[in-house]
Design brief:
Length: 157
Amino acid sequence: MKIIQFSETADGYAMDSSGYPAYVAQVMHRVPADALAFMSAPWHYAHRDERCPHDARLQKLVVLEFEEEDEGDARANGIEIHLVGAYGNRLLLTYSDVQSYSVEKTKSDWPAGDRSHGDWLIDEMLVLDDDLLSHEIVFTQAVIRIRHRDLQYTVAP
């Protein structure tokens, strides 16, 4: 995290996203409309709003590779992250023109026997020098990082 302050404390986590809206305002002219809608949504970090991804749990991560119709033999990647939201709703993040990604899974100490990725704690999307976007998602037991061109965020009941 570069803009959002995030740290583990004795009784949980401390998160401060108050500087993020100013960052989004500074870079908004470089961000595609769908990704900007997600980045700038007033509910994005409002944990009591059912559209907020906080406390969502990973259901499925899908990496798609396909031929681009207008590029001949060129191949492209996309990623879908399917989540069950904190309120039982379904959340879907669809990334296009994925350049790179990583998933780092850590061992869970608590609760015993839990091998999940844990709860979505915080995320941050940044604009890189080459105008790609970098999305970092921190779960309690994993971190997902994706460099991509655009993102669509969908919430379903």
